[in-house]
Write a structure and sequence with these properties.
The protein has 189 residues and is an alpha+beta fold. The protein has six helices and ten strands; from the N terminus they run ββββααββββαβαβαα. A hairpin with a 2-residue loop joins β2 and β3 (39-44). The longest helix is centred in the middle third of the chain and has 8 residues, at 111-118. The radius of gyration is 17 Å and the shape is globular. The two termini are 14 Å apart.
Length: 189
């Protein structure tokens, strides 16, 4: 195994290879929030849910007067704890329950960031996801050995400026490939 697997991949994208066809991971891009010897936690960043931010705010009895904010999509962050919300954002502001991923990004789970977003005072660059994806100790490393995922350092442009339906191709483009040109199987020399 390469020395890269002993380093953290937090702050990187996992880009699903074409052979990964099970929902919700088919053509998925996951942003890794945490990765160490105990496993990994990430948020899918290109799977839209049926909810909008205004729906989530209304469930929490928070009002939002800005229709543009209320209409922001809520993502399916992964299959684990889908009732739990995660705000992935640039590390601007201080929130009650935040985890600093690296010098650029944090993930916050507390209500105060939603209050700020509803008031138009939250982080300028933020994504809201319900649920997360998790890998047990060694699982992600095994999946990487099996060519299930590509990895690349995450990009603000892909996270916050690229339309959801283009994020898989855009993330793969960071590695310099067109994922549609890749075979749907893994080979080993």
């Amino acid at each position: 195994m390469s020395s890269r697997t002993s380093q953290t991949l937090a702050g990187h994208f996992l880009i699903a290879m074409p052979r990964l066809t099970e929902p919700p991971f088919a053509r998925a891009v996951a942003f890794l929030c945490q990765h160490d010897e105990n496993g990994a936690v990430g948020l899918l960043i290109n799977q839209v849910s049926e909810y909008r931010l205004g729906d989530v705010l209304a469930q929490l009895k928070l009002s939002c007067e800005d229709p543009e904010i209320a209409d922001r999509p809520v993502l399916i962050g992964g299959p684990v704890q889908q009732e739990r919300g995660f705000v992935l954002h640039r590390d601007d502001g201080h929130w009650e329950s935040s985890y600093r991923i690296d010098e650029r990004w944090s993930v916050t789970t507390s209500r105060d960031i939603l209050v700020a977003l509803a008031a138009g005072e939250g982080p300028r660059q933020a994504l809201l996801a319900l649920g997360y994806a998790g890998w047990s100790a060694g699982q992600l490393e095994q999946e990487l050995k099996e060519n299930t995922w590509l990895t690349v350092e995450a990009s603000d442009r892909v996270l916050f400026q690229t339309p959801l339906e283009e994020r898989w191709s855009a993330a793969a483009g960071l590695v310099g490939i067109d994922p549609l040109q890749l075979p749907g199987y893994a080979g080993h020399a």
